[in-house]
Amino acid sequence: MKRLQLLRWSSSALSPGFRTGSRLQRNVYAGLRHQSSASPALQAENESVTEEQPPGQPIRKLSPEEQRLHLPSPPIKAARESAKLAALHGRLYLPSRLPLETLARTLVDPSADPNPNFNNESLAILGHDLMTYYTSEHLLCTYPRLPLTVVFAAMFAYVGPKTLAAMTREWGVEYAAAPGGEVDPGLLQFKRMAPGTNLNTDTAISTTRPNPDRKSWRHSLSSRIVYDDEFGDITTESNTAVRGATPDQASASFVRAVMGAIYLHAGRPAAKRFFEQHFLSRHLNITELFNFSQPARDLSRLCAREDFEPPVARIISETGRKSRHPVFVVGIFSGKDKLGEGAGGSLMEARSKAAVAALKGWYLYSPLEVRVPSSTEENGAAPWKPVHVDLGEVIV
Amino acid sequence: MHPSVRLLRQDLSSIYFPRSSIARQVRYNSSDKFSERVRRRLWGTDNPPGLKDPYGGQGVLERRWSGRQQPEEAEEADHDVDIAPPEDYVEAKTWDGLQRIGHLGKWSDLPPRKEDTYKPFLPERKFSKSSKVAPAAHQAAVEISMMRMLKKPLTNICDVTDHDPAILEMIMACRIQPSDSWKSTIKFPDQRTKEALIYVFDQLGPQAKKQKAKEANEENAEVESEIDGKLKQEYNTTRKGGSQALALKNPLIKFAFLKRFSQLTGQRLSDSLISSATRVKHLVEYLDKKGEQAPKKLAVTLAESSTLQKLPNVKIFKERQTPAHKDREVGRWKLIDAELRERGLVT
Amino acid sequence: MPVQGIRTVSAARNGVGAFILQCKRIDFHYCDWAGSSRGMVGYLKHRLESFAKENPQIEIRVSPRPQKHPVVKGHYINGREKAICVRNLDLQQIAQKVNLLKEASGEKLKRTKKPVTSMNESVRGIWSPYHGGLKTV
């Protein structure tokens, strides 16, 4: 395989001037963005733009501060002056190959600066894909029998927007009150929504899902896997540049962009290490993500599918049956094997708890040695051995 | 008559209010104003007591402005009238019955007079750099020598705060030959300079004072700064003669020199230094040393440290950080500013 | 639907993977003129450099506060801040105070009664009266 030219990539991410863009677009932004630049070529371009203005308008020379006020986001050279940004770089133990300028760019939300050369949109897309890939392979390899609804919930818990917003706070990133060129580049910049904005007006991105306008129709689980996003939600897109973004949205895109920036500048191993240290290390009790409606029925279906003897509930012990607080301990047995056990105030409660315990015991099976497909990407890695693939949850 | 009885017989208003305010009232009364007429009717007299308007009269700025506009002489005459006692004034022998001791009006009520403004002898700016102190010493030495040569009172030179740039150039071009008695110490570069300087210094004195001062005022600060570098260069070339070796033995000369020198440099010279200094050199050295010892701001020291500047997570501010700075940093300032402008509270 | 997923947010365990220092910013305030700032000025001149180099994750701001006693102020990730007045303290004492601010979590001081707190379940499990060694009456 050909080696990736990471440095070349990162240089293009670093200096938007090198970005391929149409000549027209660059001219439009030249007047805005490169005023403080020391490059003579860009200044000449700038002058040609101002000359084209109608002669009636007096052209006033702006001071550097005023020029900054007119920018939608901090200029690139401000990144080196910000102590906040440097401290954030140090706090996250980011690789030194990731420059402060890129880190500053990850903090600019598309709602603050709609120019794709200066906002974090592209980095966020890359980071988002990486994060969801690493999370899903971790979940599927660690818990091969997990029902898909639970997988969706676990994905949401690991890399959902709420988690990413919490991580932004835990990283000590503060929000800017309003984006602008004079703002410290170490602050998260996004345009805030006006109070009272309706959040449910996001338009669904056109997918291949048939009949997308029929919102009341039931979405089957299989269709959610195929058509919807990694959390099982309908993919929507909101016009943040006009409407503004919520702090949660902006924080999520920041964290994703950091991931993307690390991948771009420091390479895949560094990105994976970062993911393991900051995302997988978080505490998530997967046993609490299940919500059974009829566990006893599910268990009998499961046993029928797996050719076990049909499950039988038996009382293991009890106390105070005639009292105000009886306790029953019920076990569910399949032949001679005890599948699960539960204690409850009534026989039914104890039985359903026992069934839940039995189902969780089945679904939460985890192989002793977990290996994920991305581990084979490193040089000298052992060849991939197929992991256990389960039939999936029972269908009732 | 007992003083207290005499007090009762007097017009009360002249006790409570300074005469100037009464005069103003009379002037004010002449302008027929409705509120004024009502007041007069309420009090039943043509001279109703109280301030001419209940809100305390003109504001501070208004008063100062009107005071500036009135001609000086008229003002002065007015004060004389104000301060002069009334004709039936009898001096009290004891303080029994007196409500107040001293002038009935308050000094602070009177508008400021010429004597009240304070103009310091020493200029506000201080020279402490050696590049400026030594030329000042040279200039003072040349000037004192000139005055001595022309047999004029030596301290008269202090009336001139600033020379014309051309004359200053000539002064700097002169050389000083060190001698203890300050006789024939100046060596002029040429005859024209000598004549010009003698002419100029001859004019100094009480009769030429005003004109000189005016000239000095007209000088532009810009011109001065332009010429500054040139003068320094001039001084460096003529330094060899050395005004610094001049002795300060004669008390008259010493006093005149110290006065002029401290006026030029703006530095106050301590008594111990004055008594111990025997040559001009000592004074210059002292001021040089003082300039070096001036405490440096910590922010400047830290800004000079290259290792601290290299550290990206350190930020050093030279001034106090206020909430306004924080507002600017988080971008809130422009919102506040826009909102204030929209409401017309800031223009 | 046999089973539904419940959406939650995973909880941070600082130090399990990456460790984030809780002190995110330290402000140093001094006065150029006053004598109570003497130790502080010395600290800023001689010790600040090494402190900043050792702790790149802390944003350090130095600004004068004329006519006031010197203060070191720590800002924490949980949004709280701790300020310590270091008037008349010498260089060594200030270094101790700065270290204290650096190592603090930003929480209010509280008495810890249990030596260990954990989010994980107990390995041994909770004692149950219904299992093992049942006594029949």
TrEMBL record, chain A:
Keywords: Mitochondrion, Ribonucleoprotein, Ribosomal protein, RNA-binding. InterPro entries: dsRBD_dom, Ribosomal_mL44_DSRM_fung, Ribosomal_mL44_DSRM_metazoa, RNase_III_dom, RNase_III_sf. GO terms for cellular component: mitochondrion. Residues 34-67 are annotated as: Disordered. GO terms for molecular function: double-stranded RNA binding; ribonuclease III activity; structural constituent of ribosome. Residues 85-267 form the RNase III domain. The keyword RNA-binding applies. It is found in: Mitochondrion. GO terms for biological process: RNA processing. PANTHER family: LARGE RIBOSOMAL SUBUNIT PROTEIN ML44, RIBONUCLEASE III. Belongs to the ribonuclease III family. Mitochondrion-specific ribosomal protein mL44 subfamily. This is Large ribosomal subunit protein mL44. It comes from Aspergillus sclerotialis.
Automatic annotation (TrEMBL), chain B:
The keyword Lipid metabolism does not apply. GO terms for cellular component: mitochondrion; ribonucleoprotein complex; ribosome. It is found in: Mitochondrion. Keywords: Mitochondrion, Ribonucleoprotein, Ribosomal protein. It comes from Aspergillus sclerotialis. Pfam families: Ribosomal_L50 (PF10501). The keyword Mitochondrion applies. Belongs to the mitochondrion-specific ribosomal protein mL50 family. This is Large ribosomal subunit protein mL50.
Automatic annotation (TrEMBL), chain C:
One of its GO terms (cellular component) is mitochondrial large ribosomal subunit. Residues 32-105 form the Ribosomal protein/NADH dehydrogenase domain. The keyword Mitochondrion applies. GO terms for biological process: mitochondrial translation. Keywords: Mitochondrion, Ribonucleoprotein, Ribosomal protein. It is found in: Mitochondrion. Gene3D superfamilies: Glutaredoxin. This is Large ribosomal subunit protein mL43. The lineage of its organism: Eukaryota, Fungi, Dikarya, Ascomycota, Pezizomycotina.
